[in-house]
Amino acid sequence: MASVLVVEDNPEHQAVIAEVVRRLGHTATLAGDGREGLAAAIAARPDLVVADVDMPHLDGIRMCRALREHPVTATVPVVLITAYLPPGDTSLASAEADAVVPKPFSVKELSETLRTCLESPPPRHDPAFTEALLRSLDAGVVACDLDGRLVVINQAVRDFFGDESLGVPARDWAERFGLRRHDGTPLPPDEVALYRALGGEELRHDGVLAHDRQGRRRWFAINARPVRDASGNILGAVAAVHDVTAEHHQHQYERCKTEVLKALVHAPDADRAGTEVLRAISGELGWPYLRLWLVDPVTDRLRPAATHLAEGAPQIGLPQVLGRGEGLAGACWQSGEPIWVPDLGAPDLPVAAEAEHYRAAVAVPVRSADNVIGVLSSFTVEHQEPDPALTVLLSGIAGHIGGYLERRRAEELSNQLAASIGEYIALVGHELRTPLTSIGTYTDLIAEEDDTTTVGEVRELLGVIERNNARLRSLVERLLDLSALEAGHAQLTIGDVDLTAVITEALPDAPIRTDLPARLVIPGDRARLRQVAENLIGNAVKYSPDGATVHVGLTADDDAAVLTVSDAGIGIPSGERDRLFARLYRATNARHSGIPGAGLGLALSRTIVELHRGTITLSGNDAGGTIATVRLPRRSGTSGPAHPGHRDGTLGSRH
User: Fold this and answer.
1) Which CATH superfamily groups domain 267-412?
2) I want to staple 544 with a disulfide (CB 3.0 to 4.6 A). Which of 214, 295, 529, 569 is the partner?
3) In angstroms, rounded to a whole number, what is the distance separating the alpha carbons of residues 288 and 214?
């Protein structure tokens, strides 16, 4: 004897259907509408459901779909009776009913249909089919009884949490599997969705974060509701678990991109921009260690430009300099392609051993047009398989960084050029008019002398004219030399140069404290490098008070030689450092000191250093005065013809 649930809002039709069921030898349970019928079916699973299509509260099609979605009633055969829709209507087919009986129907027709569904049920009534159905669902399905014991758990959930999850009560899942909210905060046991459903709540899209057995993070949206009998009493709870990791990552990546763009827009300078970009990536993606490497133009090596370490994250003892192919960043630089390292514990990896506290890493190249100018590398303590969407995001961020650096350089050059044109004209006028005034006025004085005046009487006047003439000649010669170097008309003569000997020859008769190696050979133009040394050391001596000692130091590593000249002189006025090294520009305190100078020595020095593919900077000395620093490449091939003129905001000149 089978149990048949009759769901029909028309009393007369309900009675005749129930009579047909009884004549077939089965018991009939009656429900007056779709909502009541659904609750009755879930509370006490029938062997067959006969339902009208057109009913209040919940029509027969929607009720049938709800029965198919519920794990308790998913395999119960359903017969739909319709006067509203023709049997071939697509909505009837979508409800997945086992049979459709149109109205008006005869007793014989209805009897044959019910007998067929009860005596020859579809394959889905087989328990093996039920198990296969639950296993094939993309969504996870779990159900528990009134005591919180799991009675249904499909394969999708078991694959994630393990087969032992079936024996874990609903309330213990948060602690047992380390469940968290979507924001990463711990999930209290009383907030587990299935457990809350036992208390009568109906939950939709409840967010849960969990880690699979490989340590990978997954985000889930859970729909849960209580299971009730016909009287509304709670018999248990059921939950559908949907993996929304892809959707979460999409929103996460969009937020990350937005925060990175904000950081680049509001950063006052390149150094701050790098720091803020790494902080934004770490905050949005949860990567605890990030480093931005940029190619050093002097040494042609990668050097760290910015590093972000999240609070409490382990430090990584990465080298401060990387060549092509060295370490993760060097390998990325060499290949010009993103590199993923899912398992840092695997052998033969292009990553430093000091990253042993981390599980995975990724590096993407930072490009400027077709050139790789840096690398963005990230490390995480969690397992991370290569993610194409994340690769696209990080590559896009690296592209924004490269574009930002190029725009900053272009803007700085444009601003300096715009500011320097008028200033240069004014400075040239000043430097020419001053000696010309002396020459002209002293010539006038000589011309006004009596014809009987002897040369001896005007010799002093002639001396003034001679000195200013020599000053003009020197000014013109140095301007022409500088222009020839910048235009490429004057070429460097490159050879092996002992920089120690060059500096020693450039030392004047003044108190100089030196710290020089016995010998330091670099590729370069000996005569031009001596010009640089003479200008820097002479500048330091000239602007230092009497009795003060100038310090000249020379150090080197495998890649670069570093010359430093420090003094305790008048220093550089605040706000003028970014204007130094412009042709003919002298700092205000130098112009009014009475110390002679044309403002070309350091401009010429900068051009010579840049032609050697080096850098020159001026900074303040803690003890007062100025420190000039020159970095020159030691390896052959990094020096050679170059185009000077790339300005740095820290560069400038005093004389």
Assistant:
1) GAF domain (3.30.450.40)
2) 569
3) 19
Distances in whole angstroms, Cα of residue 200 to Cα of each of 38, 144, 232, 618: 17, 13, 10, 73
Do residues 543 and 567 make contact, with C-beta atoms less than 8 angstroms apart?
A: yes
CB of 614 within 8 A of CB of 644?
Answer: no
Are 118 and 49 contacting, i.e. CB atoms less than 8 angstroms apart?
A: no
Strand (E) or helix (H) holding 6: strand 3-7
Residue (of 617, 636, 638) closest to 628 by Cα position: 617
Q: Which residues pair with 180 in a beta bridge?
A: 186, 209
pTM of the model: 0.56
Write down the CATH number for the domain with range 3-119: 3.40.50.2300
Token code pair at residue 416:
């300096």
Structure tokens at 615: 């850098």
CATH architecture of 133-248: 2-Layer Sandwich (3.30)
- Please provide the CATH number assigned to the domain covering 495-633: 3.30.565.10
Instruction: Compute the distance between CA of residue 139 and CA of residue 207 in angstroms, rounded to an integer.
Output: 14
Instruction: Enter the tokens of residue 142.
Output: 């779990």
Distance CA 585, CA 606 (A): 14
Give the separation between CA 647 and CA 649, rounded to whole angstroms: 7
Helix (H, G, I), strand (E, B) or coil at 472: helix
Gap between the Cα atoms of 117 and 114, Å rounded: 5
Q: Which residues pair with 417 in a beta bridge?
A: none
Q: Model confidence at 585, in pLDDT bands (50, 70, 90)? A: low
